[in-house]
Structure prediction request, 323 residues.
Amino acid sequence: MKRIHPLMPAYPGAQAQRGFSLVELLVALALSMVIVIATTYVYLGTRETQRTLFEKAYATETAHYTLDVIGRDIENAGFYPSNQVGLVGAPVVQTYTNPVTASPPAAYNAKVFGCQAQMYDPTSSPPACAAHTGTVDADALMLNSYSNDASGLDIGNRADCLRQDSANDSVNAARRNAGHPGASLPPIQPLFVSNRYTLVANTAQVEGQAISTFSLACNGNGGTGYQPIVAGVDQLRFYYLERADTTTNSQFQRANGVTNWANVVAVRVCLMARSLQAARLQGSTSYTIADCDGTARSFTDGIERKIFSQIFALKNHIQITNP
Prediction:
């Protein structure tokens, strides 16, 4: 009987089989771990970079949207439908006036009014500037105008900054149609619309995490009080340019420096927008920037902050009086 060598195949065509040695197995495992660790670092680095870019973009988008919301309202301030049909069918030219005749609030005398380092409280008696609640770093801006609509919120501009019906304001009791709000009828006279902007402290939810921040808020004359609109604004300033005459110069002033609100022709809005989460990579979390007041401020929390400023002209400043 022919004997088969232990290292030879047991049958024709078969090949000798052998496993990895312990050394080879350890080398393979080590190489695999290196690849996994390297891949993990690349993934985490890419994710951190993407999150940083997203947070930086969020701060920029917050600023642009805030400026857009306030800017459009500034440009509309003082609006009054120019042609109103009189009782005999003749056009009557009218301009912005205080809608309150008995003890009119001073803030309604002009199309724009501001409070320096304060909020505006329309519920006080009389309505006036009031201290902020908490550590809010903001001025307040009030913008007044009149509507030009046929009926309801969907046709015209009677809605305030929170899309509430300004016809609900008692100031418009004599101006709205007797059928309000049951019948969708046009108002008897243009409705008074007043929007007040400032900052409020609030909490935002990001990825299941509660983040304390400040938000642009508006208080419209159609209903509820200040409601947050845009989260992520740490500072808000308003500067006013008065029409130059013998008593004023053509420089932007904060509210306490305005001598005649009726002469304001432009408003400069400055804000400090921030990311909601850390947006600076490790090693660069400490930085210093100049805020809206020109004051150097240092931060170490890694939150991205940027200053944005824009000037808006009051398009309805030129007024035509009745002949």
